[in-house]
Amino acid sequence: GTTPAAGTFTALTSNGIDDNASATAMTLDASGNVGIGTSSPSSYFDAADDLVVANATNAGITIASSSTSEGNIFFADGTTGDQLYRGVLRYDHDGDYMSVFTAASEAMRITSSGSVGIGTNSPVAPLDVYTPAGTEAKLVVRNGTSSSPVASIELRRGSTSQTFGADVYGDYRL
User: Fold this and answer.
1) pLDDT over threshold 90, residue 69
2) What are phi and psi of 19, to 5 degrees?
3) Which of 55, 98, 131, 168 is the most interior residue, by most CB within 10 Å?
4) Count of CB atoms within 10 A of residue 35's CB?
């Protein structure tokens, strides 16, 4: 490629480890955006074009860590205290679970058995929603519009089921 004047940076395009590669492997454009598998990372959605991984078939990013460690993606809004990790997507290899953090605290966990805990890191059922003492415990099921025929929850045990719901007239039914 062409070398710009000293003290300036316009873009970097690499054809791989050596200059004999036949295609562009990575691009760092003038906006500071990085493209792997694309030479134009800035052409993607501007709220998410800082790093673009592209492939004509399947694309992915692997975060590899040891079997006793964690793999994390951090969302920071500052450089001190819990600003460093306000949001986190975490996989704990040792405990074999996935966690989602919001406001710097664990908000949801998916265990290795597939149980989901919201507000708890140790779900005791396939879906365990926990609210602290003094907080209303509520599960909301919505169907979108008041003209829809019914919003309901169905509980099943084998082939037997029981439905709890409310219809458009405000009637509740069991």
Assistant:
1) yes
2) -80, 0
3) 98
4) 23
